[in-house]
Amino acid sequence: MTNTEINDLLTRFAQAWSSQDPAQVALYFCEDGEYRASKGSFSGLSAKGRKDISQLVKKMFAVDRNCMATTNRLLIDGQMAAWQWRYDFPDGSFELGSDFFEFRDGLIALKDAYRKVITDLDTCQKLKQGKMSS
Question: What region holds the SnoaL-like domain (predicted)?
Fold first, then answer.
């Protein structure tokens, strides 16, 4: 895939993700694609194949209902890419992370997601109150 094709694919993938339609999201993966989730009880889990990816994403969307996802800083190197993302929650809080992608046959072969974890309670409170910027 060219850089332009990867950029276009990820733009459409981000739109599918924002629609929170698990079946639509899964269509951007290879039949045997893999999604490694980044959060909560899903941390460390790996869904393989479109059916399992759709089921995992459905569970995640149930938890993250009404969130707004935005991406930036897309980096493409050959058949791999990475971007940063921000998840804004209805209560004003947000989470930051990165995704790493591998591509095959015009689709996503692997999406490996990572999320920043705030362990300092003071920093966490300031972020939730909007007193710190990303």
Answer: 11-109
Task: Name the residue range of residue 53's domain.
Answer: 3-128
Res. 59: pLDDT tops 80: yes
Q: 1, 7 in Cβ contact below 8 A?
A: no
Burial 13-38, CB ≥16 within 10 A → b, else e: bbebbeebebebbbbbbbeebbbbbb
Q: CATH code at 117?
A: 3.10.450.50
CB-based contact 64:58 (threshold 8 Å): no
Record the pTM: 0.83
**Residue 133 resides in a domain:** no
Question: Which residue, among 126, 125, 102, has the nearest Cα to 112 in the 3D structure?
Answer: 102
- Give the count of domains, the chain: 1
Kindly report, residue by residue over 14-26, the tens digit of the pLDDT.
Answer: 999 999 999 999 9
Q: Which residues contact 40 (CB under 8 A, 6 or more apart)?
A: 63
